Amino acid sequence: KFFNGQSAVLSGIPVVLKNHDYEGFVRTGYTDDSGWVYFDSLLNGYYIASVGVDYPFDNALDTSRVTGQLGFYVHDEVPVLDTLIVRVSGNPGLKINEIYYMGPPNKIFYFYDQFIELYNASSETIYLDGMIVCRMGHCIIGADNVTYIFQFPGEPVTGREYPVEPGEFVVLAQDAMNHVIVQGNDTLVNSIDLSNADWEFVNSQDYADSDNPDVPNLDNIKVGHRGDFMIALGTDVVLIADGRDVDYTDGIDMETIIDVVEYSSSSTHIKDITEELDAGWAGVGAIKYSGQSIERIAPGFDTDNSTIDFIILDSPTPGYHHE
């Protein structure tokens, strides 16, 4: 089954099954003509079934990367029946197009000019209603460790209040203000003006959080979280999902996930999100407080491998793409 809820039979797909409790216990099976794969004589324990294959949907010369992952327990030979949700890389849709997180050149450790830019890479209008933007911690299976979760207003999936037209960029600002001049005597001449951002992250549980009244809000929905949507200057994971699943305590359902980007300045980084969601990471070599940003090599370009998909820019480009 595909992550967007559509169903299709994928025959001849290799499925790798690993026992998380017994290192070295690995089985590989292939889906039959009905899309089923069967494993028997399994040891008790926690298993992860994963798929990662180039699949010819239309013809053998035109393949797309199909990935997915599923975790489940086996106990006392009780039969387990489940559906593995898969994603198709490069599909058109809403993409995380740019992440500016490193902060401008400054000596006061200022990084509140962060933003996330979305892009509609499809040929149809997409609606942001009810969608969620998450910061993820280290995940063991799927997207099971949500650090922050902010939500657009409106009804997920069915809402039609907040359209994004094909080819349109959308800027989500940590703080929708002019960061070139900040309070006090410090002037950040190399920062950016986000006072006209499309959206602003606001935490209604934090009364001290700044709120531009002219910019609509994404609000925090995680109980007890008092901070803004601040992402790390070195390593982090940003995820967007359609909002059908907002029970963050057990992670975000794979079938609701729209896009994921992992980044790290370190070339020896140990991944925080599974390769089924992002096979690599962007931002290797990026420098804190440099004004640098990471952006896709072309608007919406997506192979589900951020190492390939993103480049480092010398300066951010909120609301447009680098030339």
Fold topology:
Blueprint: E1 14-19, E2 26-30, E3 45-59, E4 62-74, E5 86-88, E6 94-100, E7 115-120, E8 126-127, E9 132-136, E10 146-151, E11 163-164, E12 169-173, E13 199-202, E14 217-220, E15 235-241, E16 257-264, E17 293-296, H1 306-309, E18 310-313
Parallel strand pairs: 12-13, 13-14
Antiparallel strand pairs: 1-2, 1-3, 3-4, 4-5, 6-7, 6-17, 7-12, 8-11, 9-10, 9-15, 10-14, 15-16, 17-18
Structure report:
- There is one protein chain.
- This protein is mainly beta and 323 residues long.
- The protein has two domains: 14-88; 91-323, Immunoglobulin-like (Sandwich).
- Helix content is 1%, strand content 33%.
- The protein has one helix spanning 306-309; strands at residues 14-19, 26-30, 45-59, 62-74, 86-88, 94-100, 115-120, 126-127, 132-136, 146-151, 163-164, 169-173, 199-202, 217-220, 235-241, 257-264, 293-296, 310-313.
- The strands form three sheets. The protein has an eleven-stranded mixed sheet with strand order 16-15-9-10-14-13-12-7-6-17-18.
- Strand 1 and strand 2 (26-30) form a beta hairpin.
- It is elongated.
- The protein starts with 13 loop residues before the first strand and ends in a 10-residue tail after the last strand.
- The mean pLDDT is 89.
Provide the CATH top-level class of the largest domain: Mainly Beta
User: How many domains, in number, for the residues?
Assistant: 2
- The assigned structural class equals mainly beta
Question: Could you name the CATH topology of the largest domain?
Answer: Immunoglobulin-like
Largest sheet, strands/sense/barrel? 11 strands, mixed
Number of helices: 1
Oligomerization: single chain
CATH second-level architecture of the largest domain: Sandwich
Give the C-alpha Rg.
Answer: 21 Å
In CATH, what is the homologous superfamily of the largest domain? Answer: Lamin Tail domain
